[in-house]
UniProtKB/TrEMBL annotation:
GO molecular function (one): serine-type endopeptidase activity
InterPro entries per record: PDZ, PDZ_sf, Pept_S1C_Do, Peptidase_S1_PA, Peptidase_S1C
Enzyme class: hydrolase
Domain (PDZ) ranges: 268-335, 383-478
List of catalytic residues: 119 (charge relay system), 150 (charge relay system), 224 (charge relay system)
GO BP field: proteolysis
Full protein name: Probable periplasmic serine endoprotease DegP-like
UniProt-listed SUPFAM superfamilies: PDZ domain-like, Trypsin-like serine proteases
Catalytic activity annotation: Acts on substrates that are at least partially unfolded. The cleavage site P1 residue is normally between a pair of hydrophobic residues, such as Val-|-Val
Length: 490
């Protein structure tokens, strides 16, 4: 290209750029909102601040060096702390000391009902509610609290009706929707922050019913128990936890969805406690390996590892090895979906359940019971091992033997457990890589019971002949806790 042509082309580009710039300026001038930035949320915030309160608590600790009410995330999780905890008035060794905490809350009934986090008020001797106008009220009663969802419902006695806010539908919120948090970060009451919903249905390993809303609205220490609003001024979440290496916001906060909170709070108000639905099963995830062992095209549902003998599932005929695909019209895409669906179901309700058993789909009805408060799973490991030669051929790196009285005593195996005991696991074998241990008992192979070593060998041969790359084992530990393991056959 000659010099003259290059100059002409440069001039054309300059004129084009100038035209675009002028057009953009005209657009911004024609639309004032674009020139000023996003629309203000002042009108929404102004109507809500009176209903958001600061919660201050005091607790007296008697022993020297006794730990205060630290609000840490679950052991091994990436979460630093839940937001409050300010310590003062530490006495000398042997003397009582007072621990003060600051959090947030919000009024849901003009008569004086206030929502906050359980960890904000846990163990408190005195709870004071501070309002935006400077007035204070002492909490006269904790109507109820629920550690599993970290919610608490408080009662105060106001002389005049309080300004209250209402709950919205958290299920209607989408990733990218604007939200607003109001609370008491670092003791700075009435602080407003704005962000978007970053994710929904987050599982942060805080409890069995995790279903959190994640937001990048700034949430810090002291925001615990405060509301997360939509742009209509409705509460769609209760701020509960953050990820933070420093204790300050890095844009990753979590809130209990309003649809979960309202169910819990209604029960706390009516009964003073939660009354959750109970199915009576222990379930585990259907991994790709387990799906292959079951003959499923893709992982789906919740795999029943064990069934409580006197529970609703046992009465309805649900068995270990069943895969629950649908509960009360709700698809169970993953294991975590089932506990959340069950606990929100009314006690004594007859619920349709669709499950997969032996490659066939079954439809049954279960009458939901009430979850026992002490329902919990225990994990025990047997460390001592003693190799015993396998019968015959390679068994995925396992040595197995009949479950004799001597072996029951050696591995402390309950008399109620039947099957074939594993006496040794070769290092770096397929079974070892799946955390199979000596002392585990093989109860089923490919969903068929086994009682002698030859039963296990026959089932393994059948799996290999079928061409499947994995075999599904149902294992029991010494206490009777069951789990499924899909072990590669080669």
């Amino acid at each position: 290209m000659g010099r003259g042509k290059r100059q002409a082309e440069a001039g054309r580009r300059a004129r084009t750029g100038a035209a675009w710039a002028m057009g953009l300026c005209l657009l911004l001038a024609a639309v004032p909102g674009l020139a000023r930035g996003p629309a203000s949320v002042a009108d929404v915030a102004e109507g809500l601040q009176d209903a958001v309160v600061n919660i201050s608590t005091t607790q007296t600790l008697q022993g020297p060096g006794e730990p205060g009410p630290m609000r840490k995330g679950p052991k091994g999780s990436p979460f630093e702390e839940f937001f409050d905890d300010f310590f003062e008035d530490e006495g000398p060794d042997g003397m009582p000391r007072k621990v003060s905490s600051l959090g947030s809350g919000f009024v849901i009934d003009p008569s004086g009902l206030i929502v906050t986090n359980n960890h904000v008020i846990e163990g408190a001797d005195e709870i004071i509610v501070n309002f935006v106008d400077g007035s204070k009220l002492k909490v006269t009663k904790i109507l109820g609290h629920d550690p599993k969802t970290d919610l608490a419902l408080l009662k105060v006695e106001p002389k005049e009706p309080l300004k209250a806010v209402s709950f919205g539908n958290s299920s209607a919120m989408r990733v990218g929707d604007w939200v607003m948090a109001i609370g008491n970060p670092f003791g700075l009451g009435g602080s407003v922050t704005v962000g978007i919903i970053s994710a929904t249905k987050r599982d942060i390993n805080a409890g069995p019913y995790d279903d959190f809303i994640q937001t990048d609205a700034a949430i810090n220490r002291g925001n615990s128990g405060g509301p997360l609003f939509n742009m209509e001024g409705e509460v769609i979440g209760v701020n509960t936890a953050i990820i933070s290496p420093t204790g300050g916001s890095i844009g990753i906060g979590f809130a209990v969805p309003s649809n979960t909170a309202t169910k819990v709070l209604n029960q706390l108000k009516e009964y003073g406690e939660t009354r959750r639905g109970w199915l009576g099963v222990h379930v585990q995830s259907v991994t790709e390996e387990i799906a292959e062992g079951l003959g499923l095209v893709e992982p789906m549902g919740a795999l029943v590892a064990s069934v409580a003998p006197d529970g609703p599932a046992a009465a309805a005929g649900i068995e270990a090895g069943d895969v629950i695909l649908d509960f009360d019209g709700q698809e169970i895409d993953s294991m975590r979906d089932l506990p959340r669906a069950v606990v929100g179901t009314a006690i004594d309700k007859d619920v349709p359940v669709k499950l997969l058993r032996g490659g066939k789909t079954l439809n049954i009805t279960v009458k939901i019971g009430r979850l026992p408060e002490d329902e919990a799973e225990e994990e025990d490991e047997i460390e001592e091992t003693l190799p015993v030669a396998p019968e015959g051929e390679d068994l995925l790196g396992l040595s197995i033997a009949p479950l004799t009285d001597d072996l029951r005593e050696k591995y402390a195996i309950s008399d109620k457990i039947e099957g074939v005991v594993i006496t040794d696991v070769e290092p770096d074998s397929p079974a070892a890589r799946k955390n199979v241990k000596a002392g585990d008992v093989i109860v089923e192979v490919t969903q068929e019971e086994v009682h002698q070593p030859h039963d296990v060998i026959d089932r393994l041969r059948a799996v290999k002949r079928s061409g499947r790359g994995r075999v599904l084992l149902l294992l029991s530990d010494a206490k009777g806790e069951l789990r499924f393991v899909a072990v590669p056959t080669s």
